Amino acid sequence: MRVLLAIHHPLSQDQGAPGVTLALGRALQARGCTVDFYSYGDAFPGVEHFTALHNLRFPWILSAHLARAARRHDVLDVTTGDAWPWARLGRPGALRRHALVTRSHGLEHSFSRRIRADARAGRMRLSWRYPLYNGGFRLWEVEQTLRLADHTVLLNEGDAAFAREQLRIPAGKLSVIGHGLDTAFHGLALPAPREEGPLRLAMVGSFLKAKGVDEVIAVVTRLHAQGLSFTLSLYGTGTPEPEVRAAFPASLQPLLHVVPRYANATLPGLLAREEVLLFASRTEGYGMALVEAMASGLVPVSTPVGAAPSVVHPGRTGFLVPIGDVDALVAAVRELAAEPARRYALRRAAQAEVQGLTWPDIAARTLALYEEVLRVRADSR
Q1: Close Cβ partners of 182 (under 8 Å, ≥ 6 residues apart)
Q2: Share of the chain above pLDDT 90, in %
Q3: Is there a contact between 83 and 105 (Cβ–Cβ < 8 Å)?
Q4: Could you give the dihedral angle defined by the CA atoms of residues 208, 214, 219 and 221, in that order, rounded to the nearest 10 degrees?
Q5: For residue 126, what pLDDT is reported?
Q6: Is 177 exposed, middle or buried (0-12, 13-18, 19+ CB in 10 A)?
Q7: Which of 217, 244, 246, 337 shows its CA 20 to 30 Å from the CA of 260?
Q8: Within 10 A of 264 (CB to CB), how many other CB atoms are there?
Q9: 3-state secondary structure string, the chain?
Q10: What's the CATH code, domain 184-353?
């Protein structure tokens, strides 16, 4: 089978959606597929820094490419919001027997609903530009793609429910397929339990309000005031260390360890010193940081976003707390701090929970979906 994976990002192994796109492509190749990629690097050669203007132009540049190259592929697997001009034009250049699949790395409508609610509550401020593109025209583009594609792949059940109930996309045209874990995260040995020393907390992800930064700062500030001994490491902030440190009270800054960027394959080694993951994100498509941290032996204290409800089982593999609930986050951390033996048992359970998330399995499910969509399309002609 010949597959094109197209994505509105520059391809990089060490970034979220681009990294999983490359991983999926390799896993499909291992199952005998011929896989090509099309990304910002192809649409905008030589460009290093991208803006909303590139995102606005990408669907049209991609459409021109598809008109020339679609006939070389059986399946065109394209990120949401990007294939609608080509589909509207009647899919020029495609084989008679082909499938157009659109793939969401986090449904934009779900994200928009959450941050608009946060803005109304005064938790964040939206730019005046937001309703013009990301909160306006881009949502229209995504909806058009969902309607015009033969099938849509989503990352979580919440996004699927929104697509069904709010956008009126037929359930038969929707599938939920998550991500796998790279081999670096499988079969890791859990370090022996620590007999003494501070509780080691970690946050993995960008230093953004949408990722729960305000809640994490509030939690550790309160824990410190209550006298709990701990350290906090922040991995992959994407923000320079001085700016991250300045966001915390001065009394907490000696307890911080900041790693603005890391190569993804090195994350298990970085997390080997940690015990508890603070995953206070307000919105996620999937949440690779969560499952990668669990695979590395951290017990999660997580909000119920993205993949969390499917892998974080309260009291068995971690704690689920309501979005924005600082009291619940503090209580969960204090409970883990008070019971070292239980904390270690939960770390082991969390690690075991995600070991079944493999790219070979995701590729097998994806390939079966492709074959079914091709069959349905052939039968309908």
Answers
A1: 23, 264, 265, 359
A2: 86
A3: no
A4: 110
A5: 86
A6: middle
A7: 337
A8: 19
A9: CEEEEECCCCCCCCCHHHHHHHHHHHHHHHCCCEEEEECHHHHCCCCCCCCHHHHHHHHHHHHHHHHHHHHHCCEEEEECCCCHHHHHCCCCCCCCCCEEEEECCCCHHHHHHHHHHHHHCCCCCCCCCCCCHHHHHHHHHHHHHHHHCCEEEECCHHHHHHHHHCCCCCHHHEEECCCCECHHHCCCCCCCCCCCCCEEEEEECCCCHHHCHHHHHHHHHHHHHCCCCEEEEEECCCCCHHHHHHCCCHHHHHHEEEECCCCHHHHHHHHCCCCEEEECCCCCCCCHHHHHHHHCCCEEEECCCCCHHHHCCECCCEEECCCCCHHHHHHHHHHHHHCHHHHHHHHHHHHHHCCCCEHHHHHHHHHHHHHHHHHHHHHHC
A10: 3.40.50.2000
Nearest residue to 156 via CA among 174, 168, 140: 174
The single residue listed with the structure tokens 């008109």 is 67
Query: Are the C-beta atoms of residues 290 and 300 closer than 8 Å to each other?
Result: yes
The structure's pTM equals 0.91
Longest dimension (CA), the chain: 69
Q: What is the tens place of the pLDDT at every residue in 60-113? A: 999 999 999 999 999 999 999 999 999 999 999 999 899 999 999 999 998 898
Above 90 in pLDDT, residue 185? yes
- Is pLDDT at 295 greater than 90 in this prediction? yes
* pLDDT beyond 80 at 10: yes
Q: CA-CA distance, 130 to 119, in Å (whole number)?
A: 12
Q: Which CATH superfamily is domain 2-180+358-380 in?
A: Glycogen Phosphorylase B; (3.40.50.2000)
Nearest to 370 by CA among 118, 177, 131: 177
* Contact residues for 211 (Cβ-Cβ < 8 A; gap 6+): 203, 205, 280, 281, 282
Angstrom CA distances, 226 to 324, 330, 331, stand at 20, 10, 12
How far apart CA 74 and CA 92 sit, in angstroms, is 14
Domain assignments of the chain as residue spans, ordered by start = 2-180+358-380, 184-353
Same fold, 2-180+358-380 and 184-353: yes
